[in-house]
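I'm curious: can you give me some protein's one-letter sequence along with its backbone structure tokens because I've never seen that pairing?
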Amino acid sequence: MWISTNRLGTNDHPAAGPGGPTDAAPAGPAPAALAPGTNRPGTNGLRTGRPGTKGDPAGSRRTDGHGSSAPARRTAGRLIAALGLPAVAPAGLIPPVLAPGTNRRSGSRRTDGRRGFAPLRRTTGRPTAALGLTPTAPTALAPNTDGFRTNRPGTNGRRTNRLRTGGPGTKGGPAGGWRGFVGVRRAARRLGAVLGVAVVALAGPAPAALAGPGPASAGLTPAAIDRFVNGYLAETGLPGAVVAVTRGQKVVHTGGYGRTAGGTAMTGRTPVPVASLSKSMTALAVMQLVEEGKVDLDRPVRGYLPEFTMADERAARITVRQLLDQTSGMADSAFPDLALPQAHTLKGAVARMRGARLAAEPGTRWNYHNPNYFVAARLVEVVTGEPFADRLRDRVFAPLRMTDSRSVDSTTDMPEDARGYVRAYGRVVERAHPRWFTAGGHGVVTTADDLARWLIAQNNGGVGADGRRVVSARSVDIMHTPPEGENYAMGWLFSEASARSGGEGGGKKSPPLQHTGSLLTQNAIQILLPDRKTGIAVVSNTGMVSGDDSVGISDGLRDLAEGRAAEIREPFSVTADYVLAALTLLALGLGTLGTVRAPRWARRAAGRPLWRAGLRTLPYALPVACLVWLADLVGLLMRREGTFGQVVYVWPALVVCVAAAALASAAVIASRGGHLTRAVLRGRRPAGDGRAESGDGTDTARGGPAPVVVDRGVGAGQ
């Protein structure tokens, strides 16, 4: 991976895998989890108005603590009660995710305690509430059910609802804050109430299944996971993702959402590349050799792999453990792997390092570097005498029943050639992936069902869901323990800062472990919550950095696992790209202005020393230099090395912004230089400046001859 793949704490129909329960409840009447009257997340504990209570009829309860007593609602409500009609919708009108009490996107409800009714809710919400009807909308328009908030960056915790026509900070009215004709709105509400009474009367009593639903479900359940992930896709525009969640030795949920770049619906059996999640699997294969006595973690690698040589004598001291912990001293700064021609085999990947040097003394400093795991995978091949992919399949995947998992040598061997999407200006753009060598470091292709089995073994001391042990508990503990002073351990990232005191048993909690993985068009994450015996894995088909959707989804799933309301956290670029767009337009505007003013600038600068003009123009060269060295600057910030083309994948809006600034600056420099050169060659300031230089060094207005001054004798001789 080019950009660091170890960020910390940072679809349509999911399919049940063979190792776990089904994904979601079948369509039909509202499930018990969506009962009216329950205190749902995000509703401030207010009732949704069960019949006979003082709450408003279902679907019309405000969340700011005030009632919404429209005359039409009062009248219709009493009329319904007098007629003895049920205060529910006819059968089939309530989709499972739109049961009473949910926070719907189409409701445009703000969470800052103020009124924020969108026109849709004004004109339809109250009449339907007055009749006891549940407002309905297509499932795709209700991603934020069950109180899932959508705190976008920069919105001060407010929900940003794409269906709102009143902009942020307005009172939720129609566009521009216009509140409409009051008389028309009132008449429409009353007419709707009368028509609604007739509809309910004709519909007859509701089926028993809708009459008494049970209490709402809470926590990490398949239904809650489905609602959150579907909501995330609808809110962010993510094309597709797969999810695996486990607890103890059981699969809580596996499923796929959305579609692949090729248009195939994603399920729990859809093969996806997991990028650097592969490193923990390579480490386990090495630990199996350690348990068999064939490899010693603290012996030099060269003792098992004589072909591993570098143009640095310190490489002879690199141990197997240092490879897996990534403290070998190898780094992108000394050997920029992804900026060089790519290998085709593990043997070739090791051979091309012969001319490389180390960036640090082995064992002294951590540097994320994919070739560490190329060497480790090649070591497995040489020690076992079998291809690495076969060894991983037979000794790691097969015992865990990960039957749909495999290791490939390059991105061209991945499904659809690893084709996916990048984010730009709030949209996703489909992109092909360049060829990268991946074996050992980031080459595993697997499924959500298989990831669930992998997580169970990691959380259960090396024992799979069927009780078969793939590695010892001691080896798992070694893989999960970083060297002293570091936070990376054999394909897992650990942070003491993430550990919380006061665990379930009253003691200190074990900190979570995780690892991210990124290709230019795909990203993944796996998380272990040891105290809860919970595992979470997410793979999405958007690229690294600007499209870290897997991290956003996993954060929400972790919220659910820890008993909190899940929040939809959009990738930071969704907001940042609009800022970059504004800066892009600003740069182009300033460049245009500078070009137009260049003649006047040249007239002022022509009579001054040229070095002063050069100094004044020098700042305009900075954006040009930033564009030329953009890959190096990004690599410096991310501690990775790559090419300019890879930066275009990583953050398109940033590249466009820097390129626009560089273009504007270059135009200003060229325009100023041209006008200044012409002025200097003419030997005088350009006409129109109002002053020119005469032959005797004096100045005259409009470039004419110097006037003759006649001495009248006054002051003569002074």
In short: DSSP finds 20 helices and 14 strands in the chain. The CA atoms of residues 122 and 185 lie 8 Å apart. The first helix runs from residue 71 to 83. Confidence is low (pLDDT under 50) at residues 1-217, 497-507, 685-718.
